[in-house]
Amino acid sequence: MTSDSRARARPSSSGSEVVPGAGPEPTGFADVGLLTPVAVGHDALVSDAAVASALIEAERGLVRAAVALGLAPASVAAAVERGAGELERALDVGALAAASVGGGNPVIPLVAQLRDAVEAIDAHAASWVHRGATSQDIVDTALALLVERACAAVCVDLGRVIAALAALAAEHRDTVAVARTLGQHATPTTWGFRIAGWIAAVRAARAELRAACDAVPVQLGGASGTLASFVALYGEDAARRLPAAFAHELGLTAPELPWHVARRPITRVGDGFTTVLDALGVIASDVALASRTEVGEAVEPAAPGRGGSSAMPHKRNPVLSVLIRSSALRAPGLAADLHRAAALAVDERPDGAWHSEWPALRELLRSALGAAATAAELAEGLTIDAERAAANLALTGDAVVSEQKKLTGAAGAPEAYTGLAGAYVDQILAAVRRDHSQEDT
Description:
15 helices, Fumarase C, Chain A, domain 2, about 450 residues, two-stranded antiparallel ribbon
């Protein structure tokens, strides 16, 4: 369970306020981020209110699809839109959660409330709410909407990470530092090359995430995944066309088949977000190590109240890196939960495996949202201390180029033994410029 955005409105990555739901604050246990500080300020897109909003949007989309195919009159869509809007503004998410226990999912009580809201406007239109659908159609489609929205926000922040790191890599293209292998001094490298490696990993992870999220389809199968209800209501031809119309209304992908128990869309997304957190985790780990007192080559951006210790006033802890690492360390387990659920998705609707997927997926999205925003702040304020890098390089003396002496019989200056580091930095920076050029067009 994540925090409810209605209790505290959050800015989106674009700076605009995101409050996907409204109404009374839910009662009972609510996770406001006390033990997951990385998510505080960044998780409104996956809050309980956001989930409820996505469920309602899925119901709206299904009605709009029926209207678009000429199966329902336009007046039905207008009444449902109005009723859904009124419900969303007044919805008590806590009460909805309590009512969900009886049926095992929130769609059953939500549909009843939506029908009541629409019936107050147009009794005929109310009969079109959830027509032919099953709860899994709406839950899975709502999850697809959450995934799409979280992916967009994460990719915006990853773009900030890449841009900031590119500037830092260019600045430190030739800042020589000692490389470390198995925790000990190795041959010389450059900070620019190290940062270029971070950029390459983030770029690749962002591309994988986009591909996974772009492929997440709507769900529409009816009670057992055969669309029998829609064939009975509209005929075979219209039933075949309805999933694509549904997807179009929601800006999602049309499914090849109903995927009630074929959970690859979810596991692929989970892997995509985990890959992003892997890449960010490496950056955070490197920065945390480089900011150690005895190393001192990297310094996180300062901010009031950040990095202090309750017992040791002299400390400036690498808190941003710590928070990012906390998400990166949890991600593989959450992704494993999704794969475990997928492997146990039996029959035509799983008896518990599907339900276990929801909190794991949402917590993974929440972790990625928080870590990406935090990584953007870290990258935009990170500084490299070239003098400390030089001092650490000198600790090993001539042994830092012992490989060169072994290979050639002579050893030169460390700064002359960095191989293709500079060329690789240039290569990555050129790729980043191409990315920007393509995005601009």
